[in-house]
């Protein structure tokens, strides 16, 4: 089943088409990675999908609903959450407080119990479950700012999944991580896939090839190609983009 469909998306900055008629889709239950060299337009595309930037053209549908003109918070309500490259956690609050706030923010009607105490207990249970999912149970009482970088990123992921998204956008989740933290993040993303589709923007190719069911390669704002990890690794044009060749492969994309 197709969950997200981007159709002919366009974003221009002045004369520069940072997103140039991009079409691609993310299926339910899939990890779809977006890769491409610096300046290819990955962040711009993620900002268009999450609604931080308005598109100049094209459409976006999520689970059949047209979300092209939705503000970011309406996209979250429709099932689309994102993590940021810069963490969005409340640094002076504890892990538990962060998670409780996130659960409360997205609680809607599901935690409206007749008894206040029952409601509070249900919120606490949901927040503790989130801590468990991102393996931060032991850090519940720790002030977020004192967590190591990798744990802060996990908390950021927990805040995003508190909204129970159908699709999670992860913008460079491994940025700034060492090998141990990266491996933990790979394991976390793999577990999350059981409950939601994931659109992954990541420079760490090892992580991309380990995780992605499908990969789309962006070059100069256009999709060069989409395929499985094996197909992308074997693609001569993609190799040319990353390894460099005598002829500029982007010319073919620009044409
Ligand atoms: N707000 C903006 N105003 C003008 N130009 C912009 C703006 N944001 C991005 N660009 C330009 O759009 C193009 C795509 O940038 P974008 O940040 O989306 O690429 P990227 O693939 O995410 O790069 P990186 O991998 O370095 O993060 C670049 O040429 C960039 O300079």
UniProtKB/TrEMBL annotation:
MF (Gene Ontology): ATP binding; ATP hydrolysis activity
Assigned keywords, A-Z: ATP-binding, Cell membrane, Membrane, Nucleotide-binding, Transport
Gene3D superfamilies noted in UniProt: P-loop containing nucleotide triphosphate hydrolases
Record SMART domains: AAA
A GO cellular component entry from the record: plasma membrane
Domain of life: Bacteria
Domain spans labelled ABC transporter: 4-245
Statement: the UniProt record of this protein carries the keyword Membrane: yes
Name the record gives this protein: ABC transporter ATP-binding protein
Organism: Comamonas antarctica
């Amino acid at each position: 089943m197709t969950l997200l469909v981007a159709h002919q998306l366009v974003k221009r900055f002045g004369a520069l088409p940072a997103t140039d008629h991009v079409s691609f889709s993310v299926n339910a239950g899939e990890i779809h990675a977006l890769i491409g060299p610096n300046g290819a337009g990955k962040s711009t595309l993620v900002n268009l999908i999450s609604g931080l930037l308005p598109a100049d053209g094209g459409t976006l549908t999520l689970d059949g609903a047209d979300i092209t003109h939705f503000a970011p918070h309406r996209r979250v309500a429709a099932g689309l959450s994102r993590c940021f490259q810069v963490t969005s956690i409340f640094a002076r609050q504890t892990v538990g407080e962060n998670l409780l706030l996130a659960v409360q923010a997205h609680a809607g009607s599901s935690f409206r119990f007749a008894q206040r105490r029952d409601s509070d207990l249900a919120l606490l249970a949901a927040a503790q479950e989130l801590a468990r999912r991102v393996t931060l149970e032991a850090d519940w009482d720790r002030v977020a700012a004192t967590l190591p970088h990798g744990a802060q990123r996990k908390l950021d992921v927990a805040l995003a999944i508190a909204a129970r998204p159908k699709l999670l956008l992860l913008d460079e989740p491994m940025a700034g991580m060492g090998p141990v933290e990266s491996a933990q993040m790979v394991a976390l993303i793999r577990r999350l896939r059981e409950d939601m589709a994931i659109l992954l923007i990541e420079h760490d190719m090892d992580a991309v090839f380990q995780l992605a069911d499908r990969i789309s390669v962006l070059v100069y704002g256009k999709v060069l190609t989409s395929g499985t990890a094996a197909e992308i690794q074997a693609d001569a044009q993609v190799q040319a983009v990353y390894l460099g060749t005598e002829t500029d492969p982007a010319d073919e994309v620009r044409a």
